[in-house]
Design a protein that fits this description.
The structure holds two protein chains of two kinds. By secondary structure, chain A is an alpha+beta fold. Chain A is built from 17 helices and 15 strands. In chain A, strand 7 and strand 8 form a beta hairpin. Among the domains of chain B are: 108 residues, Orthogonal Bundle (Cytochrome Bc1 Complex, Chain D, domain 2); 75 residues, Orthogonal Bundle (Cytochrome Bc1 Complex, Chain D, domain 2). The chains are: A alpha+beta, B mainly alpha. The interface between A and B is large, with 47 and 53 residues.
Chain lengths: 499, 298
């Protein structure tokens, strides 16, 4: 077998000959890491910038304000619209209340989220990344804060070259202070989803909140400050799996932020282009002003085509449109388009925009189906129920009169927000007496079980057959739970076992 | 930018991507040099340092006679003790309530009853299950606690007394004592009389008598020797712990041989007294749990 470790070969002293398959190794002083290019983002105005500000305002507004929205559920449940109640193991979302065993609703929600992400991707590429992703939203906000204190791109670059002066130090300090404030507020809003928000705010203000609250505020302050202030585009490029998944999911009809090189090339200065057009020669609209590059939050050059670092926020579209307006050329040199269309135009063929195609129809249909199934199951779910476990040891007990008794652990669920009473009965075999240990009430000889609002109650149920000769082997029985005030009955199957 | 043979200083720049190569070649395929960002590399170094710090501050290295203790003085046993203490504090609310509530009242409070049963079940598994079985199902000689047949009474208070002071546990002054004498071994009855009375005892609960014995002798022996404790009709006596012989529950088996064995050699299984070994609240919880298994009487 061939030696496949050329580096070892190459370092052997005195060796001068190498095979043509072995290139020389990289210079020994090459660094172990890829140096980070610092990005100074230039501010820009335009349609997509306005859209991004609007999305930022709405998403952050919802995030910070939602815990304070109230929702009246009566005296037996919390009055917070959105609440993850870990101690009591309940999740409240407006009119929906989820119990831990209903975690499949969360699964459904995740499936729905994934399908919506796929649909967004099939229609307009990384629309999630560019506008909605928390990393993008917070980074956008942090960039804005940075420009507020340290000036726009040129000023920041000048100051970076200049080094630290008293003024730049104060500016930087102010910037980090505001960043930390935003980060702290982000963590603060997070914990409010896990407890009654107004109460927790009071506790935090008076220093009496639980330790976990401070801990999580600290953790989220740190991550927000680090991810949005320092890591920025590195999160998208190196840490996030979505660009990789997205690349595998996309197709040639998905709209992407595209440099229309059919119109832009050959690029050159405005003067040369005017001269060329006057002479009847082809000249591109791209004046190579680099505005698309300087406004990019991830520092890519969109003119190199679709690339993994590009989060498709559309800011380069705004920048380029601004330039096109100034030089009197039509806007849209960079626009949401497909490479297929660029190639078609180059060859003089008609463009085709296929938003409605099997992929998008399938995703939309799946979203509708999953959403409908979830709503249907939510609307028709039982608000009471029971589960039964037969005693495993002993399986049955012989009583002094020769009768046989089986014992069961029965859990009765009451998902309504009122206390309710249920009649528990057993059928499937004649002559069975039912007794619930610790339950005083009864109706027509059957135990009447009271369960508190939004609670479950576990009871030990004894089922006895007093006529010895009939008790032989195993017979299937059914536990039935009927609400005392009327309503749908719940059943659970089990067995009555004898010798 | 192609590589030329023998050029030792070729940077190996890939012509398609313009990226340098690492110099590694597998079957003619060269690896592009796309190194991790610097912060990634530093994160890796930090984890290395972190692991070294772990060796120093926590117990880590085995020595000839022990191990390095670590700077924090952390011990797993102390961690368990502090966890258990925290658990006691956490349970103090219901635990205190259980201690203060009279035995008969516990079942009236739904939550307290559930708490007592849960604590009782745990204590039962630790202390009682070895003899009585995990679910209290019993075994030969060890009473089934799920049925309605009790040797010393099935009221809450009776059960509590039994747990506290045990059965025939002579180390405890208040223990329950009641002995089934060894009629045969001690020479009180002859073999024929023992066999006859064993057959008679079977008939008390409707079982068939054994063949080849004198029924009249069995009835006479029973009346002379057994009825004082077990009752004229074999109904038993709770104060003496004398079992009911007329029901369908048999602690040692209902066959004539087992009964004859009991009459000949006597019976006298002991149960330890738990007062002093378990605290009063745990005994209360155990009483509630055993009573709730199904056989508890009022």
């Amino acid at each position: 077998m061939r030696d496949t470790s050329p580096s070892r070969e190459a370092f052997r002293p005195g060796r001068t000959h190498m095979t043509d398959l072995q290139p020389a190794i990289a210079e020994a002083d090459e660094p172990l890491y890829a140096a980070r290019r610092r990005i100074f983002q230039q501010s820009v105005t335009g349609r997509f910038r306005t859209l991004k500000w609007a999305v930022l305002a709405v998403t952050l507004g919802v995030y910070y304000a939602l815990p304070f929205v109230r929702w009246d559920r009566g005296p037996h449940a919390p009055g917070q619209a959105v609440l993850i109640d870990f101690p009591n193991r309940r999740f409240y979302f407006f009119f929906v209340e989820i119990w831990p065993q209903e975690v499949y609703y969360l699964t459904g929600l995740l499936i729905l989220a994934a399908l919506i992400l796929f649909l967004m991707n099939a229609v307009a590429g990384r629309a999630w990344c560019g506008y909605l992703c928390p990393q993008t939203v917070w980074t956008d906000l942090f960039y804005a804060v940075e420009r507020f204190f340290e000036g726009d791109r040129r000023e920041q670059m000048r100051r970076a070259k200049q080094g630290l002066t008293f003024r730049t130090f104060v500016e930087k300090a102010m910037k980090h202070w505001v960043w930390l404030l935003i980060a702290w507020w982000t963590g603060g809003a997070w914990v409010l989803y896990f407890a009654d928000a107004p109460t927790l705010v009071k506790e935090l203000a008076s220093g009496t909140a639980p330790f976990a609250a401070y801990l999580w505020i600290g953790i989220l302050t740190a991550t927000t400050y680090l991810l949005a202030g320092h890591m920025r585009e590195q999160v998208c490029t190196y840490m996030c799996p979505w660009p990789r998944i997205q690349a595998a999911l996309t197709d040639e009809y998905a709209l992407n932020v595209t440099y229309r090189y059919d119109r832009g090339e050959p690029r050159g200065s405005l003067k040369k282009a005017i001269a060329a057009r006057a002479a009847g020669e082809k000249a591109g609209d791209c004046v190579d002003c680099s505005q698309c590059v300087v406004v990019c939050p991830t520092g890519v050059d969109i003119r190199q085509g679709l690339q993994i670092d590009c989060i498709q926020c559309g800011l380069c579209i705004d920048a380029c449109d601004g330039v096109m307006v100034k030089i009197g050329r039509p806007t849209g040199l960079i626009a949401y388009d497909t490479d297929l269309n660029v190639q078609a135009r180059e060859q003089g063929l008609p463009e085709s925009y296929r938003i409605v195609r099997p992929r998008t129809v399938l995703y939309a249909a799946l979203i509708l189906v999953v959403g409908a199934v979830m709503l249907w199951s939510l609307a028709t779910r039982d608000m009471s129920g029971l589960s039964v476990i037969h005693d495993r040891n002993p399986v049955f007990v012989r009583l002094s009169d020769g009768g046989i008794r089986n014992a069961y652990t029965v859990r009765v669920l009451n998902k309504t927000l009122e206390p309710r009473r249920f009649v528990l009965s057993v059928s499937g075999r004649d002559g069975l007496a039912v007794e619930a240990v610790g339950v005083a009430g009864s109706r027509d000889g059957q135990p009447l079980v009271e369960v508190g609002p939004d609670q479950t109650r576990e009871i030990r149920v004894l089922v006895t057959a007093h006529e010895p000769p009939k008790v032989q082997g195993t017979s299937p029985i059914v536990f039935t739970l009927v609400p005392a005030d009327g309503g749908r009955a719940a059943n659970a199957n089990d067995y009555f076992r004898g010798p | 930018m192609t590589t030329s043979p023998g050029d030792n200083h070729d940077h190996g720049v890939d012509p398609v991507t313009g990226t340098t190569t690492t110099g590694h070649v597998w079957d003619g395929i060269r690896e592009l040099n796309t190194p991790l960002p610097r912060w990634w590399l530093w994160t890796f170094y930090v984890t290395v340092v972190w692991s070294v710090a772990y060796w120093i501050v926590y117990p880590a290295w085995p020595l000839a006679t022990g191990y390095t203790g670590g700077l924090f003085g952390w011990r797993s046993r102390e961690a368990v003790v502090s966890d258990l203490d925290a658990l006691k504090v956490q349970r103090a609310g219901f635990g205190g309530k259980l201690a203060a509530t009279p035995l008969e009242e516990v079942a009236k409070d739904e939550q307290l009853f559930a708490f007592a049963r849960a604590q009782g079940k745990a204590a039962f598994g630790d202390n009682c299950a070895p003899c009585h079985g995990a679910g209290g199902g019993g075994a030969k000689g060890f009473p089934n606690l799920n049925d309605d047949d009790w040797l010393w009474g099935g009221k809450l208070e009776d059960i509590q007394t039994t747990i506290r002071h045990g059965i025939r546990w002579t180390a405890d002054d208040k223990t329950r004592i009641g002995n089934m004498p060894a009629f045969g071994r001690d020479g009180v009855l002859k073999r024929a009389e023992v066999n006859a009375v064993a057959s008679y005892v079977r008939t008390l609960s409707g079982l068939s008598p054994t063949t080849g014995v004198d029924p009249a002798l069995g009835a006479k022996v029973y009346g002379d020797n057994c009825a004082a404790c077990h009752g004229d009709k074999g109904e038993g006596k709770l104060e003496l712990g004398a079992p009911n012989l007329s029901d369908q529950v048999w602690l040692y088996g209902s066959d004539a041989a087992s009964i004859a064995d009991g009459v000949w050699n006597g019976r006298g299984q002991a149960m330890p007294a738990w007062a002093g070994r378990l605290d009063e609240t745990t005994i209360k919880a155990l009483s509630v749990y055993v009573h709730s298994l199904g056989g508890g009487t009022k």
